[in-house]
Amino acid sequence: MKAALLLGAVLLTGAQDAQQAVRFITCPVYRDTDNGRKSGCWLATDPATGIRYDVTAAPTKPDWNHAILVEGFVARDGGDPCGGTVIEPATVSVLEEPCTRH
Asked: Residue-wise pLDDT tens for the chain (102 aa)?
């Protein structure tokens, strides 16, 4: 039983290594989908590549007044339901750096 659990953990780690890892700092954007209460999406654009990612699934929600550190892996079949490539699992850390709004 322990060997099966260990093998499963190793396979899971190997699967995450095969996925594209992302890590960047940016200012988040909230997009309202007008699909009912709390149906909007949090998006974050990687400044180095210009790719927009969907970080809605992160346990910590962004604060649009502050920059965020985004870390995670690009979802294999996440698509772009909100206009950005899905990151799963996504980790969002709110930073003290303020974001300028236009």
From this structure: 344 333 344 444 444 456 899 999 999 999 887 665 667 899 999 999 999 999 998 999 999 899 999 999 999 886 777 888 999 889 999 999 999 876
| Amino acid, single-letter form, for residue 14 | G
Beta-sheet pairing, 29-31 with 21-26: unpaired
Using CA of residue 96, residue 99, residue 50, residue 33, what is the dihedral sign? positive
CA dihedral 68, 46, 9, 79 (to 10 degrees): 110
- HEC string of 62-81? CCCCEEEEEEEEECCCCCCC
